[in-house]
């Protein structure tokens, strides 16, 4: 049941309302056929409603790039799961390395976000990944295991199908050069085994997607790897032609 491929467009803190509106309309008119895929757009908070209105009735889905774990209250600047659902989100992203680094997001905060999101009916993508230094010092698997175990603490079996793990090696993000296929394969196999041992009775484990300088030229080799259930695309997802080509190629690979 892990076979449905998934593609996330993470626009990070880029574009404005006009740019987003043009991009979404271009994607909608370009992308005709992706019945066998989940394609998810993730604009900055202020444009969620705009994208939600534009994609209504299409097969595209909407994700936020963050969420807060409390339902309501005096949390200035934060946004709850219900608010996200109210504007049409089906997904939330959490634990992106840019948030871990710049916003000091911890595994414990991320865990609360996962629990709140899945409890309130949202799908969640949990991002994990090692730094260049950690890879150099053979700490990749220790780091990722820690992020998985602490991020997924207390997650119930029935929430697992609503969770996707995003593997993003930090130093290749935005570099134009993805990680080596051999390294992607090794880490995805590792994550798959970790999930298996954390949830031994599950027949519906989270899908695992790769992120980091994915484009339409390298997608075929990445998506053909075992245990790679999709991709998280940053820069290349803001170019309609390139992004639609990625979606087409992932669709052809299934
Ligand atoms: P790039 O595709 O620009 O490397 O970004 C990857 C990413 O961080 C997606 O979440």
Helix and strand layout, with pairings?
Layout: E1 5-10, H1 17-30, E2 37-42, H2 48-55, E3 60-64, H3 81-86, E4 91-94, H4 97-102, H5 107-119, E5 123-128, H6 132-136, H7 140-151, E6 163-167, H8 181-198, E7 207-211, H9 219-223, E8 230-233, H10 240-252
Helix pairs in contact: 1-2, 1-10, 7-8
Bound molecules: 1,3-dihydroxyacetonephosphate.
CATH class: Alpha Beta
The amount of beta strand, in percent, is 15-25%
General form: globular
Oligomer class:
single chain
**Spatial separation of the terminal alpha carbons:** 13 Å
Helix content: 25-40%
CATH level-4 homologous superfamily: Aldolase class I
Determine the number of helices (DSSP H or I, runs of at least 4 residues). Answer: 10
| CATH fold topology | TIM Barrel
- Spans with pLDDT under 50 lasting ≥5 residues? none
Q: Give me the CATH architecture, please.
A: Alpha-Beta Barrel
Radius of gyration over alpha carbons? 17 Å
Number of domains: 1
Largest sheet: 8 strands, parallel, barrel
């Amino acid at each position: 049941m892990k076979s449905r491929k998934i593609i996330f467009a993470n626009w990070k803190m880029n574009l404005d309302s006009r740019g987003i509106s043009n991009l979404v309309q271009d994607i909608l008119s370009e992308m005709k056929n992706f019945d066998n895929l989940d394609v998810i757009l993730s604009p900055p908070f202020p444009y969620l409603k705009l994208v939600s209105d534009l994609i209504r009735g299409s097969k595209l889905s909407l994700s936020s790039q963050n969420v807060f774990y409390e339902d309501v209250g005096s949390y200035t600047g934060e946004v709850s799961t219900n608010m996200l659902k109210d504007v049409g989100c089906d997904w939330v992203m959490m634990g992106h390395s840019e948030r871990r680094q710049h916003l000091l997001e911890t595994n414990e905060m991320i865990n609360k976000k996962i629990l709140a999101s899945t409890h309130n009916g949202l799908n969640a993508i949990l991002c994990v990944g090692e730094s260049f230094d950690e890879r150099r010092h053979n700490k990749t698997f220790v780091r990722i295991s820690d992020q998985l175990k602490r991020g997924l603490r207390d997650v119930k079996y029935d929430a697992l199908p609503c969770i996707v793990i995003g593997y993003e090696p930090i130093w290749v993000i935005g570099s134009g050069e993805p990680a080596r296929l051999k390294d992607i394969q090794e880490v995805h196999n590792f994550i798959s085994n970790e999930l298996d041992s954390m949830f031994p009775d599950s027949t519906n484990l989270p899908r695992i997607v790769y992120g980091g300088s994915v484009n339409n030229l390298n997608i075929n080799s990445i998506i053909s790897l075992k245990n790679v259930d999709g991709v998280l695309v940053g820069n290349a997802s803001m170019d309609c032609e390139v992004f639609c080509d990625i979606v087409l190629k992932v669709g052809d690979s299934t």
